[in-house]
Amino acid sequence: MTKVAVVILNWNGQKLLEKFLPSVIQNTTYHDTEIIVADNASGDNSIEFLQDQYPLLKTIKLDKNYGFAGGYNKALRQVNAKYFLLLNSDVAPGPGWLEPLVKIMERNGSIGACMPKIKAFNSPESFEYAGACGGYIDLFGYPFCRGRILDHIEIDKHQYEDTLSVFWASGASLLINSELYFEAGGLDEDFFAHMEEIDLCWRIKNMGYQIMVVPSSEVFHVGGATLSQQNSHKTYLNFRNNLFMMVKNLSSGYFFIILLTRMILDGIAAIRFLSKGETNHFFAVFRAHRSFYSSLPLFITKRKKLKSFHTKLNHPEVYPQSIIWAFYVKKIKRFSQLKHFKL
User: Fold this and answer.
1) Predicted TM-score (pTM) of this structure
2) φ, ψ of residue 218 in degrees (nearest 5)
3) Alpha-carbon distances, residue 221 vs 34, 79, 129, 142, 230 (angstroms)
4) Are 104 and 111 in contact (CB under 8 A)?
5) Burial of 58 by CB count in 10 Å (0-12 exposed, 13-18 middle, 19+ buried)?
6) Which fold has domain 2-221?
7) What is the pLDDT of residues 279-302, one digit of tens each?
């Protein structure tokens, strides 16, 4: 069994592979590693490029585009390794990036997954939106990061250099115990794409494991290579999938109050989109809620099944207030300004 399998999921990403695969190969120096490209039935020349330029690199060819979640689930069943490293195709790892991640996993069996510090490829002095230096959520399920609150991204001034427990690790670069990946159910394919890694990490934390960020490991991520932040379909997926994961994973204590409050906040967000003339995002929120309502029986069933795996439901990495209120009313822009964590 290989110790680490670095698995890059590709869909019509020949140009990204051309640009980023060399740095993955060059900087992946951990001695027991296999680099694998899993292809989601690309319609470009990705496979031909790999066969021509990297004939010794293992390629997994899927029969259709299963999305991020389904693509990884189907590909990883064909991989034999102690740890899976899920790596976006638009990520350039820094030198020696893998060793610190593997080291912390090997040192502590209670750690289920970890991530590196993620910085912006096109602005390497800044954190990157999708993960930054570790992910958190607030009381109402809104995700944010150490180094990124909502759309405000911090400059990396080495203010977040400590290795610590976080709530979620970014799917852009996620190292996870392979047995735990399947025990937890893998990525939820009903999400298709976006927030499925937060859902997976939430399940893992409810099972009693830790998620860690290891800032001594750095990667550089383009972000938005598949769907940009301005894409209304991404808005739809984010709003819908966030409700999905809350139904699956929230503890029973304040379940209905929190979910109802979150749905009201979504309505306010939709009105804000409309006030800014962003009608495509306004309708994306309502399409997300319509899809959520139609899928609610399915996710209630999933919630009931997951209860048997729960060993811990109260997590100190959940911000016990509203990050929306903190950002817009209190004008808090930096993670270090949040006062209510016990980390």
Assistant:
1) 0.94
2) -125, 140
3) 21, 24, 9, 22, 18
4) yes
5) middle
6) Spore Coat Polysaccharide Biosynthesis Protein SpsA; Chain A (3.90.550)
7) 999 999 999 999 999 999 999 999
